[in-house]
Amino acid sequence: MKTKSKIIISIIICFAVLIFGVGMGSVYVHPTEIINILGNKLFSVPLSENISKTSISIVWNLRLPRALLAFIVGGALAVSGSVMQSVLKNPLASSFTLGVSSGACLGAGLVIVTGFQIAFLGIFTLPFVGLLCGMLTVILAVKFASRMDKNMENNTIILVGMVFSLFINAFLTLLTAMSKDSIEQLTLWQMGSFALKEWSNVFVLLPIVLVGVLVLMRYSRELDIMTFGEDQAFTMGVDVQKAKWIFLGLSAALTGSAISFVGVIGFIDLIAPHVVRKIFGSSHKIVIPMSLFFGGAFMVICDLIARTIVSPSELPVGAITALVGAPFFVYVYFNKRKEK
Amino acid sequence: MLTLKNVYAGYDGNDVLSNISLTVQENENLCILGPNGCGKTTLIKTISGLIPCKGSITIDGNNINSMKRHEIASKVAVMSQMSSIYFSYTVFDAVLLGRYIYMKNNAFSGPSYEDREFAEHCIDAVGLSKLKYKQINTLSGGQLQRVYLARTLAQDPKIILLDEPTNHLDLKHQVELIDYLKEWSKVDGHSVIGVLHDINLAVRLADDILFLNEGETQAYGKADDIISSKLLKQVYGMDVVSFMTDSLRKWESYNVEPSIIPKVKLRKIK
User: Does B32 fall in a domain?
Assistant: First the structure.
């Protein structure tokens, strides 16, 4: 099958998954009703008479913002993972490797424990501080790596990132141990959840992710060339140092902003890019946008499972992605070893 | 075309190369020979701009320190030994990446017709037309090295720097590659500067030879003028000529008839 056909079919399937995710739950809403409600809200299309006000409220106020947020978060994590894997030339690498999640967790933990709030940010203080700390961790890790190794070899970056991660996790453990009142809230945040998310979250996160993805797509050729080695990329005319900072910074920003809103959710950044490369090949002009769609759709499915499998209770979505992701991680690792 | 004057270069402030001077004219090839660790690869990296240096390196009269990255890349391309493939591309996509410096200003639009056509010519030139849409991780070592050669040609450089590109290749593919590069260097003011471990391949390709020893020039000039038993012994610490003649005698004792090596089958870029 031609790549264009594969792309069109995949995008249609991803949107179908999104609609399916909105429709499923304690109250089932038929896809045609969902499309009708969307048409009405966005383009003032007349509503069918048999659509109840409850359905409209469930779709528009509860499930659609939640599913869209899941889609955007999953997409952001997957794009970030695909870029990290290519820059570090390691199919198992991700922003988490560089300590984004640890930094974001510590930042969010401090906000939860101290109750600190920035007046003009209100409820967005937690995601803002989380993002800030996540980014700060990556910047410090990369700066430190560049000090230790002027060429910023990938192994140095990965090792430094892991050391920073463990070091910050130690602070988080101390913080958790010392603030017993907030243990539950801290633990739940670290497991990730889309519960009670509103349109405001979507409106804040969407532009960040779109800009990040577009800039990364602008540099997709540089990313392609860098997978053949940084020395080779340099001699082919790529400004490797600048490109590396852009890729690491934007990947960290995508992951940091995504998890700051919903908590730590792992493995999407590993699974989605791997599947995308299997289907579409490695060219990043396709891998980046398709990772956005696949990661988004996968997250919607995981969130659907999380909120329906033990209904009316809800599981942390991070647990669902980990249940699927951990065996997948092992599969990728051993498959790579077998290939060698 | 390329001139090095009193070049010093190395890593972390320690010079590996000392006082290297050389000139490579258009349509001339230079091979750099010497024992392991003598600074051959460092010299290739220095010429390509990967390692900063003291002294001066000029290409067509322009100092590389004052040239932008893409300007150097439009003049000098590097073909290294095969590296691991982490993510696979089709042969065409991999070769098209060689056109990067010509495509970098239109990042969102696809490659131009001219760039695609040039990449096609390069693939055709190395005889890989039938494998154009194959994934490179499914190719043999010889085919993969041809892909890298096509990508290097797609960069449309004046000078190709070789860093032991024949490693991991069988004899047939080694000779084919060297002969193709020799043909390539005969036209349009092209030149090849190569690090090769095999002296036989080096003299097959080179007009001039630079012998390095511990980062310094041991001998430099036309192959016919400088190669001697004494020099080879000094550089390699062994009697290379005796080894070669011994091997030749052995071959003469086998039941084999020498014949002319067939002319390289690869085609020139249109």
Answer: yes
The answer to whether the Cα torsion of A250, A253, A254, A255 is positive or negative is: positive
In a domain, residue B196? The reply is yes
Cβ–Cβ gap A283/B89 under 8 Å:
yes
* CATH number of the domain that residue B18 is part of: 3.40.50.300
Who contacts A162 (Cβ-Cβ below 8 Å, separation ≥6)? A97, A99
Domain that holds residue B162: 2-84+158-253
Give residue A219's pLDDT.
Answer: 92
Whether A279 contacts A297, CB under 8 Å:
no
Does residue B134 fall inside a structural domain?
A: no
Angle at A185 between CA A184 and CA A189, to 5 degrees: 115
| Contact between A282 and B87 using a beta-carbon 8 Å cutoff | yes
Q: How far is CA A80 from CA A140, A270, B261, in A?
A: 19, 10, 52
pLDDT tens digits for range B256-268: 776 666 555 555 5
State whether B155 and A236 contact (CB < 8 Å): yes
SS3 call for B17:
strand
Kindly list the domain boundaries of chain A, sorted by start residue: 3-339
pLDDT, residue A337, reads: 58
Output the pLDDT for position B261. 61
What ipTM score was computed for the predicted complex, to two decimals? Answer: 0.87
pLDDT tens per residue, range A84-121: 989 888 777 887 788 888 888 888 888 888 888 888 88
Is it the case that residue B240 has pLDDT exceeding 60? yes
- Cα separation, A75 vs A91, in Å, equals 18
| φ, ψ (nearest 5 deg) of residue B17 | -105, 135
In the sheet that B53-59 helps form, which strands lie side by side, from edge to edge? Answer: B14-24, B2-11, B53-59, B62-63
Confidence of residue B164 (pLDDT cuts 50, 70, 90): confident
Pairing of strands B53-59, B216-222: unpaired
Q: How far is CA B122 from the centre of its chain?
A: 16
Of A23, A12, A24, A86, nearest to A294 by C-alpha is: A12
pLDDT digits (tens, 9 = 90+) for A244-291: 889 988 998 899 888 888 888 888 988 899 999 989 989 999 999 999
Number of domains in chain B: 1
Asked if the model's pLDDT at residue B254 lies above 90, the reply is no
Per-residue CA distances from B15 to A11, B217, B234 (Å): 55, 14, 22
Question: Of the candidates B48, B89, B100, which has its C-beta nearest A238's C-beta?
Answer: B100
At the topology level, CATH places domain A3-339 in: ABC transporter involved in vitamin B12 uptake, BtuC (1.10.3470)
- Considering only CB atoms, A225 lies closest to which of B80, B88, B100, namely B100
B169: pLDDT strictly greater than 90: no
Q: Which residue has the tokens 């401090």?
A: A110
Which residues 173-232 of B are in CB contact (within 8 Å) with A? none
Among A86, A235, A238, the residue with its CB nearest the CB of B87 is A86
pLDDT digits (tens, 9 = 90+) for B186-221: 888 899 999 988 888 998 999 999 999 899 999 999
Cis peptide before B258, with omega less than 30 degrees from 0? Answer: no
Could you tell me the CA-to-CA distances from A238 to A132, A229, A234, A319, A335 in Å, in that order?
A: 29, 11, 5, 40, 32
- On whether any CB of chain A is under 8 Å from the CB of B80, the answer is yes
Q: Is B88 on the interface with A (CB under 8 A)?
A: yes
Touching check for A143 and chain B: CB below 8 Å?
Answer: no
